[in-house]
Design brief:
By secondary structure, the chain is α/β, with parallel strands linked by helices. Helices cover 32% and strands 21% of the residues. α4 runs antiparallel to α8.
Length: 474
């Protein structure tokens, strides 16, 4: 048995780990799209998997975010005909996000052709909506905390990670030559005191653990101050400066959190009477999916539902449905809040809102989550005074704010707490993925102090033979 790391290796995107058994059976953990690594590297890594799609037997999907699911239709396009195993909420969200991804790729291709680009400059879509339709037929739903046999000698067990609705960690129990081994993949680990979702669950003792490490060397601000922090930015920008508050936010997870906080401010009569616009049809659809799964909300939100049947709605909120509505926001000069995707500001309508507002001091761009260094959000987070948007330079006169308390990823304390259900001495190897290399090196040291003897940071496309590792450590 061996594991090959074909994504999220010393980077935070493109999650893709291939487990190959002795008999040739292949289980792919996630099939994510690379994002925000610079055009050349992103395109290069998205164009080739590093393995043969038609040889994969099972795709075990942790959650719906595009950096974990975004290349599934390409996998299908290249010959994958196996089962896609995930929770019901993950399937529902993934189908929305994959359809949106196919539309974005189609529109970008058409725009490049209409601008007279050469064949070398025009990027062909990685997949089409037809490939997404074929993908839909391959999903099979799994429940949390139930062992499911995929075939003889291979069982899987999903546990809730509290990252987004439906997100799961995946434990695989593999028996070869009468020797059972357990491989655990964390997916993305949520926070133990998340405002919406249940905390991450314990998982079975494992021989090999693949764990994300996005915030492996830092600790988040307390989430319980988030409502007050958000109110300060609203008051500062929309009341005192009479400007627009522009918030890049992912359609899944972050947008719903923002709506929940704004709803709380509305219930407390603290929210000014200003328009709040979610400029993203996808965000509207994903919010409806989130509402379908109230059983996955935490106890605190369950109590809120007893007095408020929709914690994501409040007076003054509206969702845009058409491009024309989005374009009209450019001509709206009164104070307002605009929430739009993507969260890293590397694509989507948010780039137009930033472009139209970035050169005016009265406006604020509020970053509420992780941004890869190469993205527009990453540049703003670093304090760049000039940025390029759609090929044109813009001076950054708008105020740039950050709220680090809103990350859906667990921090270093959350990650070590997540691992606390394990006996370190029985974990043969712990692999760190989904993190920047410098962060992973710090987290590696921390874990070794916790008693994990073998903590590895795999490189892109590296392969680890698990049987050989076991032989070396016994």
């Amino acid at each position: 048995m061996r594991i090959a790391f074909h994504g999220a290796a010393r980077t935070v995107t493109g999650s893709k780990h291939l487990v190959t058994l002795k008999d040739g059976t292949q289980l792919l953990l996630d099939c994510g799209m690379f994002q925000g690594l610079g055009e050349d590297l992103t395109d290069s890594w998205n164009s080739s998997f590093g393995f043969e799609a038609d040889k994969v037997n099972y795709l075990l999907l942790s959650h719906a975010h595009i950096d974990h699911s975004g290349l599934i239709p390409k996998l299908v396009k290249e010959g994958f005909k196996g089962k896609i195993i995930c929770t019901a909420a993950t399937r529902d969200l993934a189908m929305l996000l994959l359809q949106d991804s196919a539309d974005i790729q189609k529109n970008e291709n058409q725009m490049q052709r209409s601008h007279g680009g050469s064949n070398e400059e025009i990027s062909e879509p990685l997949y089409t909506i037809e490939d997404v339709v074929k993908t839909a037929a391959l999903f099979e739903i799994i429940q949390f905390e139930e062992w499911v046999q995929l075939e003889e000698g291979v069982e899987v067990y999903y546990t809730n990670t509290g990252h987004i609705i439906g997100s799961a960690a995946i434990t695989i129990r593999i028996t070869e030559d009468d020797q059972p081994k357990t491989v655990h993949f964390s997916g993305d680990v949520g926070r133990y005191r998340d405002v919406l979702l249940c905390p991450p669950q314990c998982f079975p003792q494992s021989d090999f653990i693949i764990i994300e490490s996005t915030y492996g060397n830092s600790v988040h601000e307390s989430q319980f101050s988030t409502t007050d922090q958000l109110m300060k930015w609203i008051k500062h920008t929309c009341v005192e400066k009479q400007g627009k508050l522009i918030i890049p936010a992912f359609s899944v997870g972050r947008t719903q959190e923002l709506l929940y906080f704004l709803n709380q401010l509305s219930l407390e009569k603290r929210l000014p009477e200003i328009p709040v616009v979610v400029d993203s049809p996808l965000s509207y659809e994903t919010t409806q999916v989130v509402k379908k799964y109230p059983a996955l909300f935490n106890e605190r939100l369950q109590k809120v539902l007893e007095i408020d049947d929709d914690p994501f709605d409040f007076p003054g909120l509206r969702f845009t449905q058409h491009v024309e509505e989005s374009m009209q926001l450019e001509h709206y000069h009164d104070p307002c809040i605009i929430i739009s995707a993507s969260g890293m500001a590397d694509a989507g309508r948010i780039r137009h809102h930033i472009k139209n507002n970035i050169e005016f001091e009265k406006n604020t761009i509020l970053l509420v989550g992780y941004c890869s260094p190469g993205t527009l959000g990453g540049q703003l987070m670093r304090g760049e005074k000039q940025v390029k948007i759609n090929g044109q330079d813009y001076n950054v006169h708008a105020e740039v704010g950050m709220m680090r308390s809103m990350s859906a990823h667990g921090d270093a304390d959350d990650l070590t707490r997540y691992l606390s259900c394990q006996e370190p001495s029985t974990v043969t190897t712990l692999f760190l993925v989904h993190g920047e290399y410098e962060v992973q090196q710090d987290f590696q040291k921390k874990l070794m102090l916790k008693g994990y003897e073998h903590v590895t940071i795999p490189e892109m496309h590296s392969v680890c033979g698990l049987n050989e590792v076991l032989a070396e450590t016994t």
